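Hi everyone,

Forwarding the result from last night's run.
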Amino acid sequence: MSDKVFHLLFLCTGNSCRSQMAEGWARALGRQNAYDWLAVESAGIESHDKNPRAIAVMQEAMIDISSQESTKLADEMLNRVDLVVTVCGHADEHCPVLPAGTRKIHWPLDDPAKAEGTEEEIMKVFKVSRDDIRWRVTELLAELNTGQKK
């Protein structure tokens, strides 16, 4: 296995919800699987506050994202990243030009923060989003791990 650290960045519009959940899952699953080759962060085209509902549904899954920062994308992030995963259409469309060799994939995730209805209905949308993101991150890390073993 390579000694090189692989830098993974989840990019969203405001880095308040979907990218925060993806970062939390990637960190937790990476630790669980002893992926010492993996460095994970998230950012936004803009920086918004973290969504308290995203924090709550992740806490239900025993993942604490409350100490993660809502960060605006910076050039130094782009200079170290190996893979950018855009998790919304706006971020995909407004993603800056990436350095040569940097890969980008897009996950067209609906924004749970736009859910309407009762608190119970809104939280259900957040839980569906959380579980979808977990599945996607699990699949991505398995793919990346296979690549690391080559």
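The chain has five helices and four strands.

Cheers,
N.
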